[in-house]
Amino acid sequence: MIEVKNLSKRYGPNVALNNISxxxxxxxxxxxxxxNGAGKSTTMNIITGYLSASSGSVTVGxxxxxxNPNEVKKLIGYMPxxxxxxxxxxxxxxxxxxxxxxxxTLPREKHLKEICALVKITDxxxxxxxxxSKGYKQRxxxxxxxxxxxxxxxxxxxxxxxDPKQIIEIRNLIHNLGKKHTIILSSHILPEIQAVCERIIIxxxxxxxxxxxxxxxxxxxxxxxxxxxxxxxxxxxxxxxxKAVKFVETVQSCGEKEPGVFEYEVEARDGRDVRRELFRAxxxxxxxxxxxxxxxxxxxxxxxxxxxxxxxxxxxxxxxxEGEEEE
Length: 327
Ligand SMILES: Nc1ncnc2c1ncn2[C@@H]1O[C@H](COP(=O)(O)OP(=O)(O)OP(=O)(O)O)[C@@H](O)[C@H]1O
What we know:
By secondary structure, this protein is an alpha/beta fold. It has two domains: about 1-215, P-loop containing nucleotide triphosphate hydrolases (Rossmann fold), CATH 3.40.50; about 225-295, Alpha-Beta Plaits, CATH 3.30.70. It is built from eleven helices and 14 strands. The strands form three sheets. The chain has a six-stranded mixed beta sheet, sandwiched between helices. The longest helix has 28 residues, at about 300-325. It starts with a strand and ends with a helix. The site of adenosine-5'-triphosphate (ATP) has 12 residues, from strand 2 and helix 1. Belongs to the ABC transporter superfamily. InterPro entries: AAA+_ATPase, ABC_transporter-like_ATP-bd, P-loop_NTPase. Keywords: ATP-binding, Nucleotide-binding, Transport. One of its GO terms (molecular function) is ATP binding. This is ATP-binding cassette domain-containing protein.
C-alpha cells in the first residue's frame, strides 16, 4: 500500500532523512518510532505530500506522491502532530468545512454522524473548538482525518499531551481503526507503539535502524538465544547435567537465588531451541526446574540499544570530523 524508496531529506546542511526505504502492506498498523528529531514528522510529511523529498520516492496505492499528489491525498487521512483546527469554528462548522474542502461524496449527515460517534465527539458537536479540552481537540483532529473514509491513516504523535484516560481511549480507537485501515503511527512513546502496532520501524538521526515485529526485534537483538533457568539441586551437578545437553554451548552459574536453588544462563549453539532437552536432562537426574525464561530483550531495551549505539557512532564520527576541520 505504501512504498518508500531511498528517501532522503536535507534542510540546508542538515540531513533529516538518510536514504530510508520501507513498505507497508495493506491493512497493517505500523509504528514509526524514534527519539525527538529522528525524522518521523519529516517522513510523515513527505508521505502525505506536504513536503518534498531531496531524493527518493514514495508511492501510495500505486500513485507516486510527486506525479499524482491529489490521488495520493484522496487515499490518506492525515493527523499531524498539531491538528489543523480553526478555533473560532464550532466542531459542526469545522467538520462541514473540511468535508467540502476534501470534496467528500459520502452522504453528509450520515457520514459526519458516524465519525462523531466513532471518535466520541457527538456531545461537543455544536461547541466552539477554542473552548474544548486538549483531548477533545485531538479527537476533532482525528475526525477530520477520517472524513471520506480514506484507506490509509497517518497519525503523527496522536496522544501527545493527553491524560492517561484519553490516551487509552485514543489507543483503543486506533486499534479498532486498524481493523479496516492501513495505519502508520508515529511516536516516541514505546508503550503506545507496543499497544497497537504489529510491526515497528525504528528511526534514529534520519537512519532506519530496525524494522520488524516487536517479538522479532527483541529476539534478533537478544543475547543469542540465551535462557535463564532456576534449578534446584547441587550447583556443580546441575551445571554438568545442563552442559551435557546436545547443542548447549555454555552454562554460566549466576548464584543461589533461593535456598538450594541456583540460577544458570544457558547459551545454545546456532540459535537452537534446547528447552525440551534441558527439561529432560534435568528431570532424568531429578533436578526440578523451577523456572525457564528467554533472556530476550524488552522492546525498551531494543529501542535504547539501537538508538544509543547509532547515536554514539554518529557522535564519534562528528567529533572526528570536527577535529579534522580545526587542524
Ligand atoms: N523546516 C526545517 N528546517 C530545518 N531543519 C528542520 C526542519 N524541520 C525539521 N528539521 C530538522 O530535521 C530533523 C528531523 O526532524 P523531525 O521533526 O522530522 O523529527 P521527529 O522525529 O518528528 O522529532 P519530534 O519527535 O521531536 O517531532 C531534526 O533535526 C529537525 O531539527
